[in-house]
Amino acid sequence: MEYTVVDPDELEAVEDRPCDLRRLSDAAGLENVAINRFRAEPGEQLPLAYHYHEQQEEAFVVLSGTLHVETPEGEFEVPAGDMFAAQPESAHRAYNPDDAESAVEVVAIGAPPASDDAVPYDADE
Questions:
Q1: Secondary structure of residue 1 in the 3-state scheme
Q2: CA 82 to CA 85: how far, in whole Å?
Q3: What is the pTM of this model?
């Protein structure tokens, strides 16, 4: 048996991201799920782009603040304690709006883990 305890604040932030990202699953040695901790200040978004995944299911558990998620069907406001989930091929962009009163902290879970199946989504097309 193998167990791991991970403190996200002790991990290096991933460079070139629009907000603070810590890869929890990598630190824990998990291979079948992607788990990341995001902290977005007002005006920052979580992913690199408005996107969808071809195969990955994705869920955002909001730890603090209110997460905003733009979708083709409208915008969702997800308060602390709630979860937003996107099925494969469901376009979304998670962010913290410019006028937010505080940062939003989120644990994102994706399965299967897929660093290369994110497809940019153009809301104008």
A1: coil
A2: 10
A3: 0.92
> How do residues 47-71 score in pLDDT, each as one tens digit?
888 999 999 999 999 999 999 999 9
Please give the CATH number for the structural domain made up of 15-120.
Answer: 2.60.120.10
CB atoms within 10 A of CB 6: 18
What phi and psi, each to the nearest 5 degrees, are found at residue 28?
A: -90, -5
- Token pair, residue 51, equals 């996107």
Instruction: Label each residue of 41-101 as H, E or C.
Output: CCCCECCCCCEEECCCEEEEEEEECEEEEEECCEEEEEECCCEEEECCCCCEEEECCCCCC
CB-based burial label for 29 (10 Å; 0-12, 13-18, 19+): exposed
